[in-house]
From TrEMBL:
It comes from Chionis minor (Black-faced sheathbill). In complex with CRLF1, forms a heterodimeric neurotropic cytokine that plays a crucial role during neuronal development. Also stimulates B-cells. Binds to and activates the ILST/gp130 receptor. Residues 1-22 form the signal peptide. Forms a heteromeric complex with cardiotrophin-like cytokine CRLF1/CLF-1; the CRLF1-CLCF1 complex is a ligand for the ciliary neurotrophic factor receptor/CNTFR. The CRLF1-CLCF1 heterodimer binds SORL1 (via N-terminal ectodomain); within this complex, the interaction is mediated predominantly by the CRLF1 moiety. The tripartite signaling complex formed by CRLF1, CLCF1 and CNTFR also binds SORL1. This is Cardiotrophin-like cytokine factor 1. Coiled coil: none annotated. Belongs to the IL-6 superfamily. Transmembrane segments: none annotated.
Length: 219
């Protein structure tokens, strides 16, 4: 009847339609994702450092592991890059300047941490320091990736790391421990501030662009 004829017509029409294009969604990895990855890594390192710092300060012993120990910063500690910059002044810098400062600081801090890794007295502590150094190396590379994705040039690397010829060591054990104390303290401040930096930066940079491509099938 008429119903069967209409059904037959529709089937024939559908069979003769050209192949429909397939909708394929691909994500272009860009600066937004690189910034998010770097932010996540700074937060992970903050968490990791809390455990490492407690373990290392206990290794140094009193007074370094006492909660209220807050010594003045010695001239020797000035070799460690300081994060104690006025917050308004820091925020007034360009994104490029802040990223370059983070890159230089973590490259330098990594040199000092690797020196600690070779001096730690227990196998467990050396293992913890080695793992943290690997994570911090990842942060340095991640910051470099952010700078590259934003079109910023990388700054020059750090000068000679501690322990190399021409770099004087601490004159006594107490001052050596003081150097280690300030290294951990500054590293904590850098990570805290860097997390804020990358959180603000990811709000300024749009998320990764999603593009739609039509791929014709059967052609």
């Amino acid at each position: 009847g008429d119903s069967w004829g209409i059904f037959t017509f529709l089937c024939a029409a559908l069979c003769n339609l050209p192949a429909l294009p397939a909708l394929n969604c691909t994500e272009e990895l860009g600066a937004g994702q690189s910034i998010q990855k770097t932010y996540d890594l700074t937060r992970y390192l903050e968490h990791q450092l809390r455990t490492l710092a407690g373990t290392y300060l206990n290794y140094l012993g009193p007074p370094f592991n006492e909660p209220d120990f807050n010594p003045p910063r010695l001239a020797r500690a000035e070799r460690v890059p300081s994060a104690t910059v006025d917050l308004d002044l820091w925020r007034g810098l360009t994104d490029n300047a802040r990223l370059a400062a983070n890159y230089r600081a973590y490259s330098r801090l990594l040199c000092y941490l690797r020196a600690l890794d070779g001096q730690a007295g227990t196998a467990e502590l050396r293992h913890r320091l080695g793992h943290f150094c690997s994570s911090l190396q990842g942060l340095v590379l991640s910051i470099a990736g952010v700078m590259s994705s934003l079109g910023y040039p990388l700054p020059a690397g750090p000068s000679a790391p501690p322990g190399t010829p021409g770099t004087p060591g601490a004159p006594n054990d107490f001052l050596k421990k003081m150097d280690d104390f300030w290294l951990l303290k500054e590293l904590q401040t850098w990570l805290w501030r860097s997390a804020k930096d990358f959180n603000r930066l990811k709000k300024k940079v749009p998320p990764a662009v999603v593009t739609l491509r039509l791929e014709a099938r059967g052609f």
